[in-house]
Amino acid sequence: MTYEQSAWSQVVSSATLLNIFHDSWSLGTSTNDGITKQLITGINGQPDGTLTLHGKSLILDSDTVIGKNFIIESANIANGAIGTVQIDEAAITSAKIASIDARKITTGQLLGANLNIDLDSGNVFFQKGRIYDSQTRVDINIDQAYVRTTNGGGSATLQNGRLLLTGPVYNNGQTIDSNPYFSVSASLLPTFANQPDGAVGSLLQSKDFSEISVSGHGSIGFLANMAAEKGAGIGISAVTGTYIAGNDQGVILSGGKDIGGMAFAESPNFVVGYDDSKGVDGKDVGGNSILARANNFVVAANNFSVDKNGNGKVSNGFFARNIGTNGYHTITSQDNGRLYFSGGNSNLIDISVKTVSQSSLVSLKENIRNIDPEYALAEVLKSDVKQYNFIGERKDNIRVSPMIDDVDHELYIPKDWLAEDGKSVENYTITGYLIQSIKALQQQIKELEQG
Q: Fewer CB within 10 A of the end CB, N or C, for the chain?
């Protein structure tokens, strides 16, 4: 053992060394080569108060309590299971942890340059990046600001306030279109007189056509006029037009203010497929009729209207099958046939007018010939003229005229007096015969006067 004023040392054995100085000390094993005596394992107390443990490895084989300011410069933990540990404050410069139980993490926030996870509030904040699975079936792209799900070749994308639905369309196994087939976005309604400015709503658009239908009743509009209606829904297409179908039950369009006159309030309505056996006061469908209920029925394009009393008005013209009217006070027979006025029992009816005129323009006639006054007088004299009234009329409604005998065929009437249908007479022709008869009588009177 040796001792100096500033140091004291004792070699306990050939491998053990104890050094005590006035400002430091050490205890451990050394190389003991007689020259360096470097500490291999041991404890070294430094002048600044630092206590250093030397050794190739350090094993703590008991419960350990570490105070504050615990610094690990570098650590490699192959598999760590810490039963009980208390760290007041630790700064770990670098660590490699092969396995760790996340359930033991109780920190409030996990912070990163582009990610902030707050475990207390449940908020997750992304600055940039993506979240997606290995097959990109779910893709949340922070940089391009979209959310997309993909499955079976179709996808739904939410981006810039729009929802885009995409699905490939195949024809003979070939993809013919993969563009979005439907989108939902915001829209600003155009300004109208009865619409406030700035009305915002939704815009639903499809690529070529749209269909809203009940399951099992689709293909709206594609089977039109081919069979009894089987579809139930709405089909919208720029090619085939807009089609509303109600299968064999029908379609009801209703809206507007109360039309009045009913025991209950009812808006104007239009029923296609109305069952008229249940009365006009109902809206029963499932039939083969069309019902329109309103105070007035107006077709603005044709200047046509029907008021609540059933009065119709046509400004420019109206046609029903072969008969038409126009603004020039004309009734037109489209097939140039005769006009008949009949009653509810299909019998012809009387027509009352102030005067009746008949066209007699030479330019409208052909095969013009003279008729002998004596022949005309003879035909008039042979004609049977009777007094009668029509069946169903009052007996005092006396009529006198030649008659077409379609019963006994005994009464005579000149064939020239018959109309084209053989069931009526040409009054203007009878007038012509009478005029010629007067001429014949006048000639006879003249001859008698001349003696």
A: C
Q: For 16-46, what is each residue's pLDDT tens digit?
A: 666 776 677 777 777 656 555 677 788 888 8
Q: In this structure, which amino acid lies at residue 203?
A: L
Based on the structure, what is the number of domains in the chain? Answer: 4
Strands (DSSP E) contained in 207-255 are: 209-213, 232-237, 243-246, 251-254
Question: ∠ at Cα 353 (347, 357), nearest 5°?
Answer: 105
Amino acid at position 218, single letter: G
The answer on 273 and 218 residing in a single domain is: no
355-372 pLDDT, tens digit per residue, is: 988 888 999 999 999 999
- Residues 379 and 433: their CA atoms lie apart, in Å, by 8
220 SS3 class: coil
pTM score of the predicted model:
0.48
Q: Which residue has the tokens 């008729």?
A: 371
Residues 220 and 269 both lie in one domain:
no
Q: What are phi and psi of 303, to 5 degrees?
A: 55, 50
Closest CA to 219 of 240, 205, 202: 240
Q: Which of 115, 113, 97 is nearest to 105 (CA)?
A: 97
Cβ atoms of residues 180 and 163 within 8 Å: no
Pairing of strands 269-274, 317-320: unpaired
What pLDDT sits at residue 31? 66
- Give 253's strand partners: 270
Q: What angle do CA 314, 320, 322 make, to 5 degrees?
A: 130
Range of the domain at 294: 251-333
Residues β-bridged to residue 192: 195
Compute how many other C-beta atoms are within 10 angstroms of the C-beta atom of residue 304: 16
Q: Is 163 exposed, middle or buried (0-12, 13-18, 19+ CB in 10 A)?
A: middle
